[in-house]
Amino acid sequence: MNQYDFGIVGLGVMGRNLLLNIADHGFAAAGMDLDAEKAGALEKEAKEGQSVKGTTSAEEFVKAIKTPRAIMLLVPAGKPVDSAINSLLPFLEKGDIVIDGGNTYFPDTDRRVAELAAKEIHFFGMGISGGEKGARFGPSMMPGGDEQAYERLRPIFEAIAAKVNGEPCVTYLGRGSAGNYVKMVHNGIEYGIMQMISEVYDLLKRGAGLSDDKLQQTFAQWNQTELQSFLVEITGEVLNKVDDLTGDRLVNVISDQARAKGTGKWTSQNAMDLQAPVPVIDAAVTMRDLSKYKQERVKASKLYSTAGGEQTTADEEAVIEVAKDALYFAMITTYAQGLAQLQLASKEYNYGLNLEQVAKIWRGGCIIRAACLEDFRQAFSRNTELPNILLDEQIAGLVSSKQENIRKFIKLAVDKGIPVPALMASLGYFDAYRSATLPTNLVQAQRDYFGAHQYERTDREGVFHTRWD
Ligand code: 6PG
To answer: What residue ranges do the domains of the chain occupy?
Structure first.
């Protein structure tokens, strides 16, 4: 009784791997799953000397954990989380901590925090990134909840997290649903970067005629440069994989209809609520949706011939260099959008986020880890209130040096009729953000014309209405 340091409910791949990671670091861990096979398999997977227990009984599970307890749920987001909480509740005691480690929609976490607080139980929403491997050998973790209660979780979480320069990729992020919110935006950025990488790949392949070998080498080589990042790295590996059935590259025989579980969409939806512009993420969500209209796209492809189909005359290496700069520029502006959304959300929801800490724990373990995260961390260490990293002088230097090439890249895509909406959105956002004046004065005038919505003037205080006709 009461001998395990930590408990995990849900022994799917993520739950099991995280539990074994915890055991590897010398903690005693108990797991619960309604599937007896999964619960039973756990003990067999543990190494000798490790204290690991699997059970199907909520009562046995809860009673096996040291009080005050720390129990993490790794079950699908939504109803399964409420069911798991309800199955534990009869056995939980005051002061226990329940952590939801899934990709939960943040308002659900706020509701659960309040419901469990009424029973004096702490509830944490914690985004976990890094996939199966990350869970097993070091994820990035984004916990939000009660700060004092976090201190009890800290030793275990810091032990199992990925490390960058010896620093764990986990830290207390903020109140309430802060952890789920940060993970949601992490995923929005993930969608944006994945989409932009696929656009660059498309233009290099169809527009510049790069061979599969050259494409693979290009991404592998880029990963040795300032583009160094998990998503660029795995792109090189994905492009290298040969299909057992056809002998072709596997990527060439994968259907182009993308799926999504919803986190990118939530990022865009909530960004609209906060009036946080995140056009790259919006474009990435839209492109996954558009990809599903396969039959319509096939019909339309026959109706409309390709614009400007002439072959690229520029030499291959020059196009690759332009593409590299374009991707770097676009990656930075995508992080800029997501991080700016976090600044706004922190104020709106009273999370108390520190963006330097967010950038710090995204440097390793997670899907959007990249060399540039250290530059962002430094930018926020110079100014924690920075509303947008594009306003930091050092980041401005990085972005400015790539401006010319993203313009060239987009021109090439436009000439060839190859869709690059996320890259275009990154440049459009940048050009609008750096514009001291925008043509929205005209929008205001139109609103006042047809709806008497009034406008402000640049030369005097007050609100005005004009009879335009
Ligand atoms: C991570 C990933 C992970 C998951 C995505 C996939 O950080 O480890 O983001 O959470 O793979 O949710 O999302 P989609 O299915 O929506 O692409």
So the answer is: 6-176, 183-433, 438-469
**Residue 305: predicted pLDDT:** 81
Q: Are the C-beta atoms of 412 and 207 separated by less than 8 Å?
A: yes
Ligand 1 pocket mutation, candidates 180, 231, 261, criterion most atoms within 8 A of CB: 261
- Residue 313: per-residue pLDDT: 56
Q: Is the pLDDT of residue 222 over 90?
A: yes
Ligand 1 centre and the CA of 262: distance in Å? 9
402 has a pLDDT exceeding 60 = yes
DSSP 172-209: --BSTTHHHHHHHHHHHHHHHHHHHHHHHHHIIIIIT-
State in words which class domain 438-469 has.
mainly alpha
Q: Region of 345 please: left (phi>0), alpha (psi -120 to 50) or beta.
A: alpha
Of 3.40.50.720, 3.90.550.10, 3.60.150.10, 3.40.50.11810, the CATH number of 6-176 is 3.40.50.720
Residue 176 has pLDDT above 80, yes or no: yes
372 SS3 class: helix
Q: Rounded to 5 degrees, what are φ and ψ at 249?
A: -65, 135
Active site residue 237: no
Tokens of 400: 């400015």
> What is the rounded average pLDDT for all residues in the chain?
97
Is residue 326 helix, strand or coil? helix
Given a cut of 90, whether residue 182 has pLDDT beyond it is yes
Residues 6+ apart with CB under 8 A from 344: 274, 275, 276
Domain 183-433 class, CATH top level: mainly alpha
Residue 268 pLDDT: 98
Asked about 190 being catalytic, the answer comes back as yes
Q: How far is the CA of 173 from the centre of ligand 1 (A)?
A: 20
Question: How many CA atoms, within 13 angstroms, populate the side-chain half-sphere of residue 310?
Answer: 6
Q: What is the pLDDT of residues 324-362, one digit of tens each?
A: 999 999 999 999 999 999 999 999 999 999 999 999 999
